[in-house]
Amino acid sequence: MASWSKIARIIRVPLGFAFAALYIWLAKPTRASIVIGVGVAFPGLLVRAWASGHVEKNEQLAISGPYAHARNPLYLGSLVLGAGFALAARSWWIAVVMVFFFVAIYVPVIRAEERFLRGQFREFEDYASHVPSLFPRLTRFGASPHAFSWDLYWKHREYNALLGALVVIAALVAKCMWMR
Question: Could you say which DSSP state residue 68 is in?
Fold first, then answer.
């Protein structure tokens, strides 16, 4: 039988799309909530973009860019993005579901990925002892051997996060105008 972390990894994207439909249905946006929410969400998109330009999955341990501050900046970016969209929606149900989703899906995925990294990269243990998992340290860990790579950003298709965010924002704006 598959472990929950494996199941969570498989269902997280389809579940995210299903949640998006529920999100639009439950959202009660106003102009102000959209502006505030986008203001919070945008840094999450930036963190995700920055992280995707530094990670070479399964090839080498990412310790440059945002990985010098937090071991899981992609998930941190997702958390900030989700918080922004929760604010934009003005629904406590959405906030509760997002917290549940993060704890039930992303925490096990993070743990499984870190188990994999421990086995894959001998230097991970030292890195993990100096760099927090999710909430970043202010000072950089070690030297930053790699610069941001647009090629990695495109390879990881991180632009999909931006496109998805724009679709959600457009849906919130349309719902806000329709609710008047």
Answer: G
Question: Per-residue pLDDT for the chain (180 aa), expressed as one digit of tens each?
Answer: 578 888 888 888 888 888 888 899 999 999 999 999 999 999 999 999 999 999 998 888 999 999 999 999 999 999 999 999 999 999 999 999 999 999 999 999 999 999 999 999 999 999 999 999 999 999 988 877 688 999 999 999 999 999 999 999 999 999 998 876
User: H or E element: which one contains 41?
Assistant: helix 31-52
Q: Which long-range contacts (CB under 8 A, 24 or more apart) does 108-112 make?
A: 108/4, 108/5, 108/8, 109/5, 109/8, 109/9, 109/12, 110/72, 110/75, 110/134, 111/5, 112/3, 112/5, 112/6, 112/9
Segments making up each domain of the chain, as ranges: 4-178
4-178 is a CATH 3.90.226.10 domain: no
How far apart are the C-alpha atoms of 26 and 15, rounded to whole Å?
A: 16
The two tokens of residue 35 are 């502006």
What residues contact residue 85 under an 8 Å CB cut-off, 6+ apart? 23, 37, 41, 94, 98, 165, 168
Calpha distance 164→51 (Å, rounded):
18
In single-letter form, the type of residue at position 139 comes to T
